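Renewal narrative, Specific Aim 1. Our central claim is that a sequence can be written position by position from structural information alone. The example that follows is taken directly from our test logs and has not been curated for this report. It begins with the structure tokens describing the chain, in the order in which they were read.
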């Protein structure tokens, strides 16, 4: 698999992804999808929802091969949990 070239700095990528999720996508997906992953193309605003990042991102790349992907876990601050504790 060939990864797309990134168009933005890490900071800009994160800012755009977070802003797009909070303002446009979150209200549409929050109910009934707690804990699922939303992969967002920060250029087009297209998104996919799945139980894991690979599935959500693969679905998005099928539709948008050059997607600039930002992932969010619905209802959580982070996508993945590190360290000890209950797995997500």
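The sequence written for that structure reads:
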């Amino acid at each position: 698999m060939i990864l797309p070239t990134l168009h933005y700095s890490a900071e800009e990528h994160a800012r755009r992804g977070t802003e797009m999720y909070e303002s446009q996508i979150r209200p549409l997906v929050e109910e009934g999808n707690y804990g699922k992953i939303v992969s967002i193309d920060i250029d087009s605003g297209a998104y996919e929802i799945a139980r894991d990042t690979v599935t959500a991102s693969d679905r998005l790349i099928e539709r948008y091969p050059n997607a600039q992907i930002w992932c969010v876990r619905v209802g959580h601050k982070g996508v993945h949990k590190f360290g000890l504790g209950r797995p997500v």
